TrEMBL record:
PROSITE patterns for this protein: ARGINASE_1 (PS01053), ARGINASE_2 (PS51409)
Transmembrane segments annotated in the record for this chain: none
One record GO biological process: putrescine biosynthetic process from arginine, via agmatine
Gene3D superfamilies: Ureohydrolase domain
Pfam family, one: Arginase
The organism of origin for this protein: Candidatus Nitrosarchaeum limnium BG20
Positions with a binding annotation for Mn(2+) 1: H102, D128, D207, D209
Residue ranges that the Swiss-Prot or TrEMBL entry lists as coiled coil: none
Recorded family membership: Belongs to the arginase family. Agmatinase subfamily.
Cofactor binding summary note: Binds 2 manganese ions per subunit.
Name listed for the protein in its UniProt record: Putative agmatinase
Cofactors named for this entry: Mn(2+)
Amino acid sequence: MEKICWENSSYQDCNVVIIGIPDESQSHSLREGTSEAPERIRKISNLADSYNRDGKKSLGFPLNGISKKVFDYGDITRKQIPETFEKIIKDFKVPISIGGDHSLSATIIKQFSKTGKLSLVYFDAHPDFITSIKNYYGSVFGDVIEVIDVKTSMQIGIRTPEKEEMDNLKKFQILVISPFDIAEKGIVKISEQIMSTLGDNVYVSFDMDCIDPSHAPGVSVPVPFGISSVDAILLLKKIANHGIVGMDIVEVCPAYDVKDRTSHLASRMIGEVLSSLK
């Protein structure tokens, strides 16, 4: 199996662990194929984010470089999430996992919540706040609501909620930042709002459909009027610099991508987060 291009360390010495979870068993999407994302993102990271010169591999770094040591753990199954993340958390390493469908995030978040309530930053076009049904990719936020700090958690990029989700967001008074908020207020004010809301135990869950389909066409449920890739990554970098305990990137759907643009974007996002971690 190909490794992410940022991999340059052993597990023992690393600060950050990359984990693939090629599972879409709890997805209801008409577009299938998110289980192919971990392999594709790794492959594209090596093709597009590194260069071969005189037989040697040279990485294309983020502008301010990467100081963290990274280890690609390989792929795990859905059933292996609890034991794998228990080990990583115990070893004080930051996991960046690549899905797979978004339901995977709920199990990861619940594992992290054993160390205390989380400040959850949820990037998505959809709130995933269905509570009448459990344990699928549209109920993630509802499935973890009891283990997060609602006052310091937020949703970013939301633009297609169902009535039940709007009611739940209002009930729990979740901060919601839409693409229209960013366009109206500007990225500086929005980033200040996010930083002033965040707690200390921050976990980031990033559904790639948060980003506009013009930038990220290869997702399972694309929705118009999304966040630009630059705005999304700028916010990610600021949050990572604040400090995060972990992150996941989900819902990349390679079968519907255009010239691997979404997989490449996901790869670059990982690099920019690595360059910004405290």
